[in-house]
Write a structure and sequence with these properties.
binds nicotinamide-adenine-dinucleotide; N-(1-d-carboxylethyl)-l-norvaline Dehydrogenase, domain 2; 11 helices; 46% helix; eight-stranded mixed sheet; 281 residues; alpha/beta
Length: 281
């Protein structure tokens, strides 16, 4: 199985740019659609990533072939002939709910529409689509070039054959698919946030220092990074937002600890502000 020949990416930001780059490397012709004021940055980022892959020898296609395979435009109708379109616009429910049906209308009957949403329900996003069987979640991880996990999220109406095919596409990208049924937080956020919230409660309770809590997971369970450091990297505000959502959907076990709320209110958001559970230079 190879990747689809013609891929579209809606939203060429951090994730969309990475997704476009991944499909280009794997052999797809890629159209990226973004807003007029974002085109230059989106295109420059993807072409820089192409150049880096060629320099590092990780690209099997030539630089000119890769460059020719990319088009960045503000014209959404350019998605009309795509086999697969991955939506990677901001995580604003109303924006995605309004945009996905408008994109679906442009596509051929066999085309696949996917969302890179990190938290929204695929079933909710599918309610306004006319072909929900051709819609699913493809949740890439940040940064896309180095993250090998992609969650393939099957909505209640998603064609099971499409879920299997999407898994093969992910493998053709050199990544590993994890198939999950549409459920709050999918697999990764639900488990990752559960661990982080317990680690924060342990810190609150004075069980151990942040360093030692993380070391317990890194050394004891071979995690690459401890739950508190990971929370610093993701952003305490981002984690709080997901915890609030999971709390609402899944109940008390996801109630955000007071310490997390206090730190977010104090502007200690992690690496991006220089301080979270650790101090960052
Ligand atoms: P981003 O802000 O970097 O990029 C969003 C892009 O969408 C921007 O380039 C913006 O100009 C464009 N855009 C906005 N409205 C648009 C529209 N109507 N049509 C076309 N383009 C439009 O955001 P991101 O971090 O790349 O996140 C995108 C999606 O990926 C979100 O759903 C997010 O939850 C998900 N996600 C993010 C991460 C992460 O760590 N950043 C990880 C996994 C999934």
């Amino acid at each position: 199985m190879t990747v689809p020949a013609k891929v579209g990416v809606l939203g060429g930001g951090r994730m969309g740019g990475g997704i476009a780059h991944a499909f280009l490397l794997a052999g797809s012709d890629v159209v990226v659609v973004d807003q007029p004021d974002a085109l230059e940055t989106a295109e420059a980022g993807i072409r820089r990533a192409i150049a880096t892959s060629v320099e590092r020898g990780t690209a099997l296609r030539s630089r000119s072939d890769l460059d020719a395979g990319l088009r960045v435009t503000a014209d959404r109708t350019a998605l009309g002939d795509r086999d697969l379109v991955v939506e990677a616009i901001p995580e604003i429910p109303e924006l995605k709910a309004a945009t996905l049906p408008a994109v679906e209308e442009l596509l051929g009957p066999d085309a696949v529409l996917a969302s890179n949403t990190s938290s929204l329900s695929i079933d909710d996003l599918a309610t306004r689509l006319t072909r929900p069987a051709r819609f699913l979640g493809l949740h890439f991880f940040n940064p896309v070039p180095v993250s090998t996990l992609v969650e393939v999220v099957a909505g209640a109406a998603t064609d099971p054959a499409l879920v299997a095919t999407a898994g093969e596409w992910v493998r053709a990208l050199g990544k590993t698919p994890v198939t999950v049924r549409d459920a709050p937080g999918f697999a990764s956020s639900r488990l990752g946030v559960a661990l982080a919230l317990e680690a924060i409660r342990m810190l609150e309770d004075g069980v151990a220092s942040a360093e030692d809590i993380d070391a317990a997971m890194v050394l004891g369970y071979k995690h690459a990074t401890g739950p508190l450091r990971t929370t610093d990297v993701v952003g305490l505000d981002v984690r709080l937002g997901i915890a609030e959502y999971l709390h609402e959907k899944l109940g008390e076990r996801f109630a955000p600890p007071a310490l997390l709320r206090e730190m977010v209110a104090a502007g200690k958001l992690g690496r991006k502000t220089g301080e979270g559970f650790f101090v960052w230079d």
